[in-house]
Design goal:
The protein contains 6 helices and 5 strands. It is of the alpha+beta class and 225 residues long.
Length: 225
Amino acid sequence: MTTPRLPKVAGIDSPPGQVPPPAHTVAPAPAVAPVPPAPTAPGAVIQDRLAGWVSDLTTLHELTERLARTAALDDALHELLRAGAALMGARRGLVVMEPGDGLGPDTTVGLGLSRPDLGHIETVPRGATSYGRILDGLSTTPESHADLLAEDGLDPRHREVAARLGYAASYALPLATDGTGRLGAAVWLYDEPAEPVERQRHLIGLYTRYATEHLARLLELERTR
């Protein structure tokens, strides 16, 4: 019994001129109105929030572990600045250690700022800087300056230094807890007008609370050496 030959499929292996013409023309399908997207289910919103919280907690855990591995005050201050910059989306910053008990040691450490840069910042009148107000006890809460150069009443020297170093916004907060007292202040600088969102403020608050306690332990070790 001979197996019948299958017809060739057009466009695959039919020789030229052997493709049969179409029997009829198909009319175009009528336009269909776009269907509006379905509303997001409440469960999906909750899952997204939970995923965000888990991600934030994981990041916070990793950063505090890195800080806990530092065994010297100077190393811990540099790690604090790096972690804070990552959480805040900033590129530069400085931390000023000036323990409230007056026993020192007093020191200033920068991230992305050279020693001459820090020297320029130190020429700004202390009371005109956010970290100066924190260290002098005039401010006990974080200070956000989203657009420094647009602020009315900004100290002229502060304006000059900000323009010279190329930063346009800052976020500062005290390094202090009820148990440790005030140890210092940390400031992160933004190249453009900006300010951290509520989520970032919450994370940096949790991180610096832990960091301050760690710094207090290292400070005691430093003083006993």
